[in-house]
Amino acid sequence: MSEPAMTDWTSDDEAIVYQRCTACGAVQYFRRDFCAACGSNDLATLLASGEGTVYAATLVHRAATAEAREHVPFKIVLVDTAEGFRMMAHGANDLAVGDRVRARFTRFTGRRVPYFERTSA
Fold this sequence. Notes:
By secondary structure, the chain is mainly beta. The protein folds into 2 domains: 9-47; 51-118. The chain contains no helices and 8 strands. The protein is globular.
């Protein structure tokens, strides 16, 4: 049975949450009512550390909306998190593949979003 929902950045909280299946151990992000690996609905909702490694990065020079224009250029990154899931987020413009990163939160077009920055470790 699924646990009660824990809020995260999609609800304007400064948190990244994910799920771990208690039946097979698979991790998943974004949350679902079932495990994408085995179909079980026995899922634990957990708080991510916000740490990871940049898997891919792209610098956006052309805004898709008028609201995003003030942020150009901005970097979009895929991060392999310490917990084992991959997520897309915003990141510092100087990030490169392989950089160790940690999330903080910022506003982008009026919404709170995860924003990754390089760590020294």
